[in-house]
Amino acid sequence: MTVSLGNQDRPADLEAAILDLKREKGAVILAHFYQESEVQELADIVGDSLALARAAQEIDCKMIVFCGVHFMAETAAILNPGIPVVVPDMDAGCSLADGCPPEEFKAFVADHPGAKVLTYINASAGVKAMSDLICTSSNAVKMVEHFEGEKLIFAPDRHLARWVAKETGRDDLIVWQGACIVHELFSAKGLAKLRAQHPDAEVLAHPECDQAVLDQADFIASTTGIISRAVASPDRPSIIATEDGVFHSIMKQAPGKVLYQAPGMDESCVCNRCPYMRLNTLEKLYDCLASEGPCVTVPEELAKQALLPIEKMLALS
Ligand code: 13P
Ligand code: SF4
């Protein structure tokens, strides 16, 4: 649970106070591209899941403040057990990680004797501990190729699994049927309409999207890949089928760029904003730095087991 201070207990200039506290406490702020712009602006490192895991492994500081979701902070705690990892909001979960409980996953693995287990980083430490290798959206194809000729479980995202199966020609993956509630809600029909209105625009999509959306994409990649591609052609408009937190980084690097967000199924909601990522606010960032909590911890034995497949991924990528 996050302990929040009342507004009266916080300084008026929150940004300056956060930077002061960060220096005072020897903290480093890591943030994912789906964070609010003002949070990204205060971070020492902003990145995708792979870059943030690498940063967490290499960092030397007194405290890591992880502005992302729980599985990312947990991964940082596993990779760098000597440094406390605090988060602005302990409730910032992920539909993929939450939809794959370790006990159910254990039974799923037991149902497929002899299969190797490749797990997307969007999973709990308990599920990672049962895995042979971890992947992110930026290295999933390479990690699947690592298991050539072997029976292979892929968990927990069925959309990433389908995309990676297509890319690698592996039509025999044993797939845990989870999904991202944000990427699954892009509308293929709405996207077709938007493309017709902007025929010069390039469609950039995240592989967590449904196939009907990916079928219309010119380029499919992780958040880092999408940002780099958009920035590489500053004069060509892009239609973005991922969380619109990535707009901040694109606009910083290519200020004149025209961007369109791919529409959601329900035009009246902002369902393509990750409700978990967006739980982190400047106020909660200040509170967690001030109180040095809440802290994400992983039991030592579990952390040791989960570390092996994560380290293997980092070595292979
Ligand atoms: P990447 O930033 O690694 O592409 O992941 C996207 C995502 O949905 C994180 O939860
Ligand atoms: Fe999880 Fe989807 Fe949010 Fe990423 S965007 S953290 S996959 S719910």
Rounded mean pLDDT score:
96
Q: What is the CATH topology descriptor of the largest domain?
A: Rossmann fold
Q: Give me the Rg, rounded.
A: 20 Å
CATH architecture term of the largest domain = 3-Layer(aba) Sandwich
CATH class of the largest domain: Alpha Beta
Strand order of the largest sheet: 2-1-3-4
Helix content: 40-55%
Number of helices: 15
The CATH superfamily of the largest domain is identified as: NadA-like
Heterogens: 1,3-dihydroxyacetonephosphate, iron/sulfur cluster
The biggest beta sheet reads:
4 strands, parallel
Shape by Cα distribution: globular
The assigned structural class equals alpha/beta
The share of residues in extended strands comes to 5-15%
E-strand count: 12
How many discrete domains?
3
Would you identify the regions where 5 or more consecutive residues have pLDDT less than 50? none
Distance between the termini: 35 Å
Write down the secondary-structure element order: HEHEHEHEHHEHEHEHEHEHEHEHEHH
Account of the 3D structure:
The chain contains 15 helices and twelve strands. It has 317 residues and is α/β, with parallel strands linked by helices. The chain folds into three domains: 114 residues, NadA-like (Rossmann fold, 3-Layer(aba) Sandwich); 84 residues, NadA-like (Rossmann fold, 3-Layer(aba) Sandwich), CATH 3.40.50; 79 residues, NadA-like (Rossmann fold, 3-Layer(aba) Sandwich). It has a four-stranded parallel β-sheet, with helices on both faces. A four-stranded parallel β-sheet has the order 6-5-7-8. Helix 2 links the parallel strand 1 and strand 2. It is globular and about 55 Å long. The model has no long low-confidence stretch (mean pLDDT 96). The structure holds 1,3-dihydroxyacetonephosphate and iron/sulfur cluster. The site of 1,3-dihydroxyacetonephosphate (13P) has 11 residues, from loops. The site of 1,3-dihydroxyacetonephosphate has 11 residues, from loops.
